[in-house]
Amino acid sequence: MISGYVQVGLLEQAMEVFEEMRTGGHMPNQVAFVTTLNACVRLGRLDDACQLFSQMANPKIVAWNVLISGHVNGGHEREAIGLFQSLIKADFKPTRSTLGSVLSAIAYLANYEYGFQVHGLAVKLGLDSNVYVGSSLISM
Predict the structure, then answer these.
(1) Please, are residues 105 and 81 in contact by the beta-carbon 8 Å criterion?
(2) What is the pLDDT of residue 133?
(3) Closest to 33 measured CA to CA, from 7, 70, 64
(4) What tens-digit pLDDT sequence spans the chain (140 residues)?
(5) Exposure string for 42-51, b = 16+ CB within 10 A, e = fewer
(6) What's one GO BP annotation on this UniProt entry (predicted)?
(7) Cα dihedral angle (28, 31, 37, 43), rounded to 10 degrees?
(8) 91: buried, middle or exposed (CB in 10 Å: 19+, 13-18, 0-12)?
(9) How far is 24 from 11, CA to CA, in rounded Å?
(10) Do 65 and 36 meet the contact criterion of CB atoms below 8 Å apart?
(11) What are phi and psi of 50, to 5 degrees?
């Protein structure tokens, strides 16, 4: 139900179902968390998204990507870069989506020194030729 509500743009309803699920004693799985996280981000409720993310037992890379891209799209580039740095410290392997988002944030802030480091990481991971990553590199 949560996913269906999000897919048709009924974001508040999706979040209500998620809360009902939790208050009813049901433990949401990773998909329910990420879908609700996406609803928070799409509503521009980044504080709620961060709080929800912190409640996840073992967030997967998809959850990180939703949170990072949400911050970039919401105009919170510094926070997005901070989240990316936390992701790296937690030993997660960034994906093309992760790198594309963080490189967009870096480009907006004109933080080229850090951009060169992230570019090096993209090369190391073999993602530098990906269209999404490449477009972000060109923007930077």
Answers:
(1) yes
(2) 80
(3) 64
(4) 999 999 999 999 999 999 999 999 998 999 999 999 999 999 999 999 999 999 998 999 999 999 999 999 999 999 999 999 999 999 999 999 999 999 999 999 998 899 999 999 999 999 878 787 878 877 77
(5) beebbebbbe
(6) RNA modification
(7) -110
(8) exposed
(9) 20
(10) no
(11) -65, -40
Q: Which amino acid is at 133?
A: V
Query: Could you give the angle at the alpha carbon of 53 between the alpha carbons of 113 and 71, nearest 5°?
Result: 40
**pLDDT number for residue 137:** 78
Question: How many residues in total does the chain contain?
Answer: 140
CA torsion angle 115 118 123 124 (round to 10)? 150
DSSP 8-state code for residue 100: H
Sign of CA dihedral 54, 60, 63, 67: positive
Cα(98)–Cα(95) distance, rounded to whole angstroms?
5
Q: Tokens 């967009």 belong to which residue?
A: 104
The one-letter amino acid code at 51 reads: Q
